[in-house]
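Agenda item 2: zinc ion complex prediction
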Amino acid sequence: MTPDPLTRATQRLVRRLDELGRISDEPRKLTRTFLSPAMRRANTLVDWWMRSAGLRTHVDAVGNLIGRREGPRPGLKTLLLGSHLDTVRDAGRFDGALGVLLPLVALADLRRRAVALPFAVEVIGFSEEEGVRFASAYLGSKGYTGQVRASDLRLRDAKGVTVREALEKRSREGFSLPKPAHPRSSLLGYLEVHIEQGPVLEKKDLSVGVVSAIAGQTRGRLTLRGQAGHAGTTPMALRRDALAGASEIVLLAEELARASKPLVATVGTLVISPGAPNVIPGEITLSLDVRHPHDANRRAALAKILAAAERVARRRKLACEWTPTQDNGAVACSPEMTALLAASVRRVQKRPAELVSGAGHDAVVMSAITPVAMLFVRCRDGLSHHPDEFASPADIEVALRVMVDFIERLARKHT
Ligand SMILES: [Zn+2]
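Presented output:
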């Protein structure tokens, strides 16, 4: 028996993920950062796969690789599909890449079956999502949607090169701030397939799930100032130990988040000063990351954590200062696109599944110009940003079948 064409397409897709996963800026591990030599090689390879799927390709002003297939007549709207081609350091080969390569085999299958699409399709391989080189995420999708700001261009990498200099080097015509690639009125929406990067689908024993919303996130630094002193001679009652205060705050944040599902709150770094075994910690800076699918709940939770931190600080006679560094609102996925996607999931997987994305994705930025939807694919042990990141061919095939079914549903809706 010859295998089903979509099973064969999945095998091709898995081979391509392996091949792309070997293109790296570092030996023996996968690292591809914004505009790096490996990114250029990755773009060349994906460009070839895009053209094999019948797309016309170009690279835009911020290095995004874009493949486009026109509709049957001019003036039709465009469906956007894609994800990012950059990676974290020592990455897995599915994060981002799956969302760029899967649409190509889906479109190749539709072309093979001569399915008429009453819209244009664009597949985008974003040049930057992870924020590795310039410590600022989404440069690719910000460029595509016309949201790069002058302040983004001034960011410097570890070698002191600015974003503007890196972009100018690419092009002889110089660089000017890009406008949105499309007006909102000409777009149908953006669908991104991505590995879940968490354990929810695995726990539910499901291959794929539809994302209902992408959680908003607040990040900031909390600084506590007490008094450094001799660890041997300062009696316990006279101490103003900033680390002891910070420890209470870490546990308070955890307790509050545990009691307010689906809130998540994380203290990921602690900087201890002076930081010596025989000195009472005089100053602590801790990072706090708070996420929730509803902005009002996130703000309320943050306010609660900060109020609790201040109470701890007062009791311990510590100065307490909060400096926010990032604030992204939650993004609700498009009800229309999500309903269509959910219908495809029910058909292919038999069981529906809906989940919230705790991680940010290109879809967050794309939501500024068009309705967005996301499909998550189970990954082993929920592991991501790690070389052992793995999505099984069987799960990838389910995702491929869902995308093909989704595009056909969308085509029927717009015919
Ligand atoms: Zn990603």
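Discussion summary: The chain has two domains: 5-215+330-414, 223-328.
Owner for follow-up: CH.
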